[in-house]
Amino acid sequence: MEFQGYRRPNGKVGVRNYVLVIPSVICSLGAAEAIARNLKGATYLPNVYGCAQAGADREQTKRTIAGIGSNPNVFAVLIVGNGCENLQAKELAEAIAPSGKRVEVIEIQEVGGTKKTIARGKKIVKEMLAEATIIQREPIPVSELILGTECGGSDFTSGLASNPALGAASDLLVEAGGTVILSETPELIGAEHLLAKRARTPEIGQQVFDLVAWWEKEAIATGQDIRGTNPAPGNIAGGITTLEEKSLGCIYKGGTTILEEVVKYAFPPSKKGLVLMDTPGHDVDSVTGMIAGGAQISIFTTGRGTPTGSVIAPVIKITGNAETYKKMKDNIDIDVSGILKGKETVKEAGRRIFEEMLAVASGKLTKAEKLGQRDFCIFKIGVNF
Amino acid sequence: MPARSKAIIINERDNVATAIVPLKAGSWVNLATQGRQEKIKILSNIPMGHKFALRDIGSGEDVIKYGEPIGKTTAPIARGEHVHVHNVVSHRGRKEGA
Question: What ipTM was reported for this prediction?
Answer without folding.
Answer: 0.92
